[in-house]
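Weekly puzzle thread! Below is a chain. First person to post its structure in token form gets bragging rights.
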Amino acid sequence: MYCEKCGTKVDDGAKFCPGCGAEVNGAEGVSSVSPKSRTAALLFGIFFGHLGVHNFYLGQIGRGVTKLVLSVCGIGGYVFAFFKLFFKVALTIEDETTPLTSGMPEMFAGAGFALILLAITGIWAFVEWVIIACGKARDSKGLLVSKW
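Winning reply:
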């Protein structure tokens, strides 16, 4: 059981919440609803879903770190591919003996891998948006995030 006011776990038979001190009478004052805001989680998911900010907000640190690492690697792959193309074109203009197409397959393979990483985080974030919007998301304590 969890305190309805602060979400702290309350032992069976306890008269007061150990977190906030609110009086708990049996099942009265105890809830399985998270104190976290569904609106905040949804907005974090919409604007920063690829980075897992909504997961950090809900206390799901492992998911958040995984999503953050995948996104940073995907964005980094695109930045690397862009700079490689930019410098390849710049060097080819200066040195006309090197063909522009040399090294291009590796660059496009890197950009394709980055696209796959970003697609994974995008689909994952979209699924979590739907779960949050439907009120079925849970925080790190297993409490339902349903309050707007």
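Puzzle host: Confirmed. Bonus trivia for everyone else. The chain has a mean pLDDT of 82.
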